[in-house]
Design a protein that fits this description.
CATH class of the largest domain: Mainly Alpha
Strand content: under 5%
Number of helices: 16
Shape: globular
Largest sheet: none
Length: about 325
Amino acid sequence: MSEIAKAHSSEPRATFVVRLWQYQAERFPLVKHGALIAAFGASAVCLSALLRGAAPNPVAILVAVLVLFGFFVQLRVADEHKDNEDDARFRPERPVPRGLVTLAELRGVAIAVGAAQLALTAWLDWTLIVFVLAVWAYMAVMTKEFFVPKWLKARPIIYMVSHMLIMPLIDLFATACDWHPAGVALHEDFGLTLGAFLLLSLVNGAAIEIARKSWAPETEREGVETYSKLWGAGVAGVVVMAIVLAGFGLAAFINVRSEAGLWVLGGLALVTAWTSWCAIDFAGTPTSKTSKVLETSSGVFVLANYLLLGVIPLLLSLVSA
C-alpha cells in the first residue's frame, strides 16, 4: 500500500454518501459534466424533432438526459476498473487507490444507475431498451480493451477511436428517444442528417479527449499517457485545431439541412475560431495556463455545438410558429 493510501486509511471512515459526494467532486464533477450531458441529450432529441417538423416530447428530453447521464457515470466506473493497476502504481492520490471508495462500491452504483436507466427507458418506450443494451454491450468489451489490451495500448490513435466510438451509440439512443416512439423511418434525408450528427458526437468526444490530455511539459507525469507526451505539445495543439475544424464542417452541414439559419452558423463559426486559436496558442506556448484554456475552450465548443444545432433552433422555430 502507498504512503498516501496508508495515511488516508488511518482517517475516520465517513458515510458512503459523503464519500461518494467527495468522489464525484474529484472524478466526475456534476455541474461541469452535467451541463455538457444535458446539452448533448437535449440537442439530440430537439434536432430529431426539428428534422421531422414536430415539437419534442418533454418526457423524451428528460429520459434522454437522465439515461445519458447514467451512461457517463458507468463509463467513469468502467475506467476506474480498467485503469486500477496504473492508478495504484502512478496515481495513488486518486480516490480508489487511496481507499476513499472501493471498486465494489462503484460497481454497486453502476448497477443501481442501470436499473434506473431501464425504468426510465421503459417509461418512454420499452422497445428503446435495445439501444440501451447496445451501449452496455459496447461498454463491456471496451472495458476489456476489446480483449487485445497490449495491441491497443501500443497504438494510441486506434485506442482513442475505438473508445470514442461509444459516443455515436449513445447519441443514437438519445435521438431515438424522439424518432423511434414517433414511428419515423430513417429515410434518406432524415437519416443522412442524423448520421452526420452521430459522427459529430464522435468528433466532439475526440476534441475533448485530446484537449484534456494535452499538458505543459512541466506537468507531465511518469505513467500518465498524454497526447502532448506522445506527439509533442505543438502537434497535439494542431490536432485539436484540425478536429475542431472538422467538427465545424459537420455542424455547418447539419445547420444547412435543418435550416437553422445563418445566425446559428455565425455563432458556430465564432466559437470554432476561438477554440482553434486556443489550440494554436497552446501549440506555440505550451504552459499550464494555455493547457487549461485549451481544455476549457474545447468544452465550450462542444456545448455551443449542441445548443446551437438542436435546442436553440427548435425553440426559435416553435416561438415563430
